[in-house]
Write a structure and sequence with these properties.
Elements lengths: L1 H14 L5 E11 L3 H21 L6 E11 L4 H13 L2 E5 L4 H13 L4 E3 L14 E3 L4 H15 L4 E6 L9 H6 L3 E6 L7 H11 L4 E5 L5 H10 L8 E4 L19 E6 L39 H24 L19 H9 L7 E2 L2 E2 L13 E7 L2 E9 L3 E4 L3 H12 L3 E6 L7 E2 L14 E2 L1 H13 L2 E6 L8 E4 L2 E4 L1 H7 L5 E2 L7 H4 L37 H6 L7
Parallel strand pairs: 1-2, 1-3, 3-4, 4-5, 6-7, 6-8, 8-9, 9-10, 16-19, 16-22
Antiparallel strand pairs: 10-13, 11-12, 13-14, 14-15, 17-18, 20-21
Membrane topology: Multi-pass membrane protein
Subcellular location: Membrane; Postsynaptic cell membrane
GO molecular function: ligand-gated monoatomic ion channel activity
Length: 576
């Protein structure tokens, strides 16, 4: 009798069960001392409790979640294992794991051993699929990121060269699809914002002119410095394109892009377009706070997952998903929290697999969060995650489209606006035109005996007529500059790099804005410059008569060889 009474008291103490309510413990392992992370997790639990209350508004049993936090040293596998064991002993129904791979792996393994659902809110690059049996991770798989990039930069942007600038070695696995599917020239350079040598990376690309299209995988907090550096090396004009893959790039102050002189800046995001002015509110129905300690520091020298707004949204969506799973489990079973589990002995939580199944069975509008609709594939990973593609406009980022594995790349951009924007940018500009004197296309009529003028009034011919029509329609001005060497363009290799002379060289080295001439289009030239639709064809064609085939007669099978065949195979015999 006494033992039974003690057991009841212990159960009441641990689980806080009464006739009307039950409190379930949720374990959280934190690395380091980032104050915003703890605030985000507590806010996420608070929001999950509100969602539970709404889902179980008319249910007799009220359920609340209680966070138990364990703070460990950054990247410590031993401390993570110890914290996970402590949480198992405290009868948690779920464990929210640490961020680093070194610490997360051991905690993930312990959670699985005792059938306790394990939650992550970051890109998990581990290839051991057996560890995902009890793991819930709303972050997209790294292959999705690579596929989205390939479809965007090669499918719609038509990039034929690429420079990848990255900060962390672990992130390179995201570009596995890019490395395997990008068939053109690809150069990879590592960026270290704390080392002054990172300037030589930009200097190298500027000096060699080997690439003008870049994928930039550096922390958001270092992006402003990157923008200032490329501006210093005059790499922000219309010939350059940059795609930033840090999820928080859209939250950069648009003033950071004041260096833009016509370059194309794009970014990937897990969130819909929110903009720099987006502010979190104190409303607990929203996941975050305006507290300075909560938001990422703009002056930080480095960025980690814990200083990312996207990471905080993933935390909120993950804990909200936990509340949905618990509510569904309570509808079909009596909630019995773990009891008596310890890392010193074998055992498991019998309801763990059922809770995990309830969580991963959500689909459609069941669990729509800040990062979009949540659904899981047969292997237990989140599927069809929307990756938003943003493009920098005059007043900040605009949506270009989105990508998911089901629909692939869907472009939502209104290109009619883009055309008008380009026309506005051209209006009043003076373009430098490279050409070659050739009758009747480009002929000089200015005064002889002097250096030839670049004024279009001193030139005439078909190309001038064409330029005048274009300039009138688009309201730009131009100057005429015949190439000094008189060549259309021949390629030679200099120090391993293909260098062009003539008109092609003027365009390759940005000494001219466009060229108008009797220029032949070929594959080699198309690799370095863009051609318009040809305005003239030579008109030379080769015409030949198509051979006529005669109907075979009935006895054609008796003549398998032509008369010449057996004749040519016979040789005269010499006497003797």
């Amino acid at each position: 009798m006494q033992m039974a009474l003690m057991g009841m008291l212990l159960l009441a103490t641990i689980c806080s069960i009464s006739a009307e309510s039950i409190q379930l413990n949720v374990g959280i392992i934190l690395e380091g001392t980032h104050a915003g992370q703890e605030t985000a997790l507590r806010k996420g639990v608070q929001r999950a409790n509100q969602n539970l209350a709404e889902l179980r508004l008319h249910a007799p049993l009220k359920i609340t979640l209680h966070p138990i936090l364990k703070r460990i040293e950054e990247g410590s596998a031993f401390a993570a294992s110890e914290a996970a064991c402590e949480l198992v002993a405290e009868n948690v129904v779920a464990i929210f794991g640490p961020d680093s791979k070194a610490a997360s792996g051991p905690a993930q393994w312990i959670s699985q051993q005792y059938s306790i659902p394990y939650f992550l809110a970051q890109g998990d690059l581990d290839t051991d699929e057996t560890l995902f049996n009890f793991t819930v991770n709303l972050h997209p798989h790294f292959e999705d990121v690579g596929e989205a990039l390939v479809d965007f930069i090669q499918g719609t942007q038509g990039w034929e060269e690429l420079g990848l600038i990255y900060a962390h070695d672990d992130n390179l696995i995201k570009y596995k699809s890019l490395f395997s599917k990008f068939s053109r020239k690809l150069t990879v350079r590592k960026w270290d914002g704390a080392d002054q040598r990172h300037k030589y990376i930009i200097k190298y690309f500027r000096r060699t002119r080997s690439q003008n299209k870049f994928v930039v995988d550096i922390p958001r907090t270092e992006t402003e410095g990157f923008l200032r550096l490329i501006a210093e090396y005059n790499m922000t004009d219309q010939y350059y394109s940059y795609v930033f893959t840090d999820w928080d790039t859209q939250f950069l102050d648009p003033k950071a892009f004041v260096v833009d002189k016509g370059a194309n800046f794009s970014a990937l995001s897990l969130l819909p377009l929110m903009g720099f002015n987006y502010q979190m509110t104190e409303d607990t129905h929203r996941p975050f706070s305006q507290s300075p300690a909560f938001l990422p520091s703009r002056g930080a020298s480095s960025s980690t997952a814990r200083s990312s707004l996207t990471y905080y949204f993933l935390i909120s969506d993950t804990l909200n998903l936990l509340s949905i799973g618990i509510s569904r489990l309570a509808e079909s079973r009596t909630i019995e929290p773990p009891s008596g589990l310890s890392c010193k002995a074998a055992g498991n939580w019998s309801l763990g697999p059922h809770l995990l199944s309830a969580i991963k069975s959500v689909k459609g509008n069941d669990a729509e969060g800040s990062t979009g609709l949540v659904e899981f594939g047969s292997e237990g990973r989140r599927k069809n995650v929307n990756i938003t593609i943003l493009e920098m406009g005059k007043d900040g980022f605009l949506e270009y489209g989105y990508w998911n594995r089901k629909d692939k790349l869907v472009v939502t951009k209104d290109f009619s606006k883009t055309k008008s924007e380009i026309q506005k940018e051209l209006k009043g500009q003076t373009l430098r035109v490279a050409t070659i004197e050739e009758i009747p296309f480009m002929m000089y009529k200015g005064p002889s005996g002097h250096v030839k003028s670049s004024d279009p009034k001193d030139w005439h011919g078909f190309c001038i007529d064409l330029l005048n029509e274009c300039a009138s329609a688009l309201e730009f001005n131009y100057t005429v500059h015949p190439v000094a060497d008189g060549n259309y363009g021949t390629a030679t290799k200099v120090n391993g790099e293909v260098v062009w002379d003539g008109i092609i060289g003027q365009l390759q080295f940005r000494k001219a804005d466009l060229a108008v001439a009797m220029l032949t289009i070929n594959l080699e030239r198309e690799r370095v410059i863009d051609f318009t639709t040809p305005f003239m064809n030579l008109g030379v064609s080769i015409i030949f008569k198509k051979p006529e085939q005669n109907e075979p007669d009935l006895f054609s099978f008796l003549r398998p060889l032509s008369p010449a065949a057996p004749t040519s195979s016979q040789k005269p015999r010499r006497p003797g």
